[in-house]
Design goal:
Distance between the termini: 8 Å
CATH topology: Alkaline Phosphatase, subunit A
Shape: globular
Helix content: 25-40%
Order of helices and strands: EEEHHHEEEHEEHHHHEHHEEHH
Number of helices: 12
CATH architecture: 3-Layer(aba) Sandwich
Strand order of the largest sheet: 2-3-11-10-1-9-4
CATH superfamily: Alkaline Phosphatase, subunit A
Strand content: 5-15%
CATH class: Alpha Beta
Length: 347
Amino acid sequence: MNRGILIAIDSVGIDPLGHDRPESVYSESRFLFPKGAGGGVLSLPEAPVEGALVETDVTGGLERGGIECSLTYTAIFSGTSAVAKHGLVSGLALKDSVLEEMIGQSNLLRLFPDACVANAIFPAHLRCFGQSYVEDLLPCVSRERLEEGLHFQGELVRLTGKKKHGFPELFTLAEINQNIFIHAARQAGLRLRSYDDVRAGEALTSTMTHELEARFDLRFFGEAPLPVYTPEQAAAIIGKLAERHSFVFYKYQMPDLISHTGRVDLARETVAVIERFIGALLQTIDAEQTFVVVTSDHGHLEQVGFSKGHPKTKVPTWYFGPHALQHADSLRTPEAIFHQFAALRAH
């Protein structure tokens, strides 16, 4: 039986100046960004299994407005262009009725009776970050209470004012609860995974290695510490889930946090983590029975040194499996990813 794994990597775009120039954050790539080539569909000769890279257009050529994760994930999970139906956005637009209606009409997770979202939700609804898709399931915590009791690196968090402390890091952890694919999972009747599942080796948080969570005192939320993983250990967990589920989805959030730091050195370290994770994952699966698609929602990491917002660049999409060049060529829009997995389900 064919199986599919979809990995979403937040905020990773195609470098418009070329990924193999020395200044590029991708210049030390081992296999995801092949050297000396650009445009079209590229084979990945150094990948552990047959693979190909294609540039995916997430903005539909629109110039007015911003590109956010909600648009791309809606297209991926509904099979319809969210940009064409909704337009680009103003602000984060993490919870939007138009996008929810699109998921209601067509939902990738409904195509697989044993689909799995491997991300664990954050264990509380943080009111200061706005509405979420799980606030009815979780304890609600106010900003005032957070600032009175939650510690980040040994000091109380501060979410407002000039002395903010831990704000982007906390948002990175909690933003999972606002993602449209969590709405899709609930609509499909999937069991949402928790930090208990992470401790049991049955899920990951969106940070993959959980080193960021270790900088917070999770006892504030009634949670024991999480295991800290290497990228290879995290990949093994996704691989084990894929043995039991015909479709597994996982989103890696950390590149978004790094892309807002302005630090090229951290961006390069993040690319290395991604390659270790994907490389290890590909070695855990039967490449003849399981295909893997890796994509991103929008760019930014590639322009970390000179862009403060999400640029309207194309994003890389990788296909790993038999006939990789042919399949990758069909993945030039995010909604095409839906149809690739739908074809898997049909067979």
